[in-house]
Model the fold of this input.
Amino acid sequence: MTRKLFFVLFFVIAVCDLVTAQSILGFTPTSASHETEVENKFKSIPTPDEERRQHRIFTQEPHIAGSKRNNELAEYIRDEWKKQGLEDVVIHRYDVYGTNPKSASLEMIAPTSYKALLKETPIPGDDDSNNPAISGAWLGMSVSGEVTAPVIYAHSGNPEDYDLLRKNGISVKGKIVLVRYSNPYSYRGFKALTAQREGAAAMLVYSDPQEDGYKKGKVDPDGPWGPEYHIQRGAITYDFMVPGDPQTPGWASVPGAKRIPIEEAVSAPKIMALPLSWHDAKPLLQNMDGPVAPKDWQGGLPFEYHLGGDRVKAHLKIEMDNGLQPYYVVEGRIRGAELPDEWVVMGNHRDAWVFGGVDPSSGTASMMELTRALGQLAKQGMRPRRTLVICSWDGEEVGLTGSTEWGEQFADELRSKAVAYINVDEATSGPNFHGQAVASLAPMLVETTRTLQDPSGKSLYDAWKATVDREKAGQQSTQFSSSGVANDTLADTRIGSGSDHTVFLNFIGMPVLGLGFDGDYGVYHSAYDDFYWMNHFGDPGYKYHTLMSQLWGVTALRLANADLLPFDFAMYAANIRQFVNDLVKDNEQNLRRQPHPNSDVILSGGEAGAKDHTKSCPTCGTSGTVSSDLRDVQKAVDQFEAAGKKLNESLARKLSTGQIDPELALTLNHGMMQVERNWLNPDGIPGRPWFKHILYGARFTYAHLELPGLTEAVEKQDWPVAKQQAEILERAIQENTKLLEDLMQALTR
Done:
């Protein structure tokens, strides 16, 4: 190779690398080059040592919502943020219906006597597990009471489990049900509501070693799984009905706010409930009579499980301190240099059931390094274009409380100004990354992961792809659902509830992203989820904490600094089409039961057959069945996708010119921000009006539920409501299609 040819090739390669490095969704080439410099500087600031130091501060003592320690940590965050350079730092107070334990006792009185320990024993080497401030067993929002009754084993405590008991001639009315935490996850609050509806006097819920104990592998202190005495605390709030303070549904519980009686609050349980370790559940299960439990009801304990009858009786007494108490949300900002009234919101909850080694203190430590790095950039004159709003939530564990109250308080302002919300609940319990996003932001999240290095040595993108590929092959299970996630998008676009993103997506209509690393983790919500566990199993070198700070910050900076916000509505349309297709596929039998003489023709005739049918059928068309309405929805999706593709192409061309008029950018960005708001139905989901998003919702188990109003109506075979919901969906899609077309016109003027 000649010297001249070598330099030509070197120049070409260098230019290609530069172009690649400067190509960022939503940025002109010049802006992308500057953004890369900012991101590189930002990524160099967080350190594992500082992550570990912060993590120790937050895991030093138990800090349940409303406790003195949790309130002290709010003040600590406020003071640290001010030192770090954050602005407008304030603590918001919300007077909410909170929950605390007074006492609990459980004693088996027949056929033999056993008094439950109801606490966790210390682990050798883990000094924190000996802390006298560790609470005993309790579940938030349980009612107080006392009962002596037979104990019945009800498996996972879901409705179908009680159906099986009935088939075996077993009633749970007036009895104590013993259920277990289940894998895949089913929210304990739904178990409590189901037991309440079945007429049970109380619910006991335990962690079976098959789910998170020795059947999975080595237990703490020798491994990451739950030991014999670990107790999974938690709340049983019915926040799948209405999150937040049960007495202020839909409005903020600021001091002096109107409050409804707790007896009228739909999210307040009416049943006693208590968690157990498997150590305390074992004597109850071992002494039960009655039919042998089905194979899939058997667990990890070394004996045969039975359904129970009248043989095992227990005395349960619970005293709670439920009532009004203050929760505190800490808010800080980095004011935007150019667009201060456009906000990128970030948050993590602070409250923990005990120490919260993973949940939430790993996320809190990552947040503190995130804010330190952002503050340092601001001090150096590197302000974001848009305002960054960072919040430390309180009371997430009780009912998504702090974020819900803050969101309700500032809902109008957020609907006007917010670009997106980025949630980090647990930063890490292991090395496997999972990212969630509304579909319009999924490509942006995937692109961002290509710029970060995973501790494995791969790019975060490659490590993420390997994780998803592995899970799709059935080699690993996680708490995150990868259902519907294609390899070319990776991001999970099926978003349920159970964390602080809920108010922003489902009530306010903001695009959301959720970030987290996970792994083998069997000490959830127990006293063993602590500093020791993190340093031995979760993230011993705090490298994934550091990576989370970097990823969280870079994602926020890209949204804050983009010339044109990096939304992809063609991707959103493809996602909605999949939602509709899945609805039809999963409910084919229900759809065939519609009161329509030719419903089989609609489902089996294909598009051509459907058109022929519609022409000749007097009940189709504008007044037709749900099936015909779904065809109209699909047509609307096609039009939305076409508009999204055209807008993507036009925006890319505009960005490539490097010249964007500020007024045009304002019009385009505000228009794109409006798309998510347009998915809101002011009347909400039928039966759950607080939840207003027509694309995203959650089942009572917290699991994702797409097209929630329409899906629930089809599953109930409530055809008038299903038709109404299909029409609402179609109108929203049409409205957003028109919005994208208007933005296209603005681009071509």
Q: What stands out?
A: The CA atoms of residues 175 and 577 lie 46 Å apart.
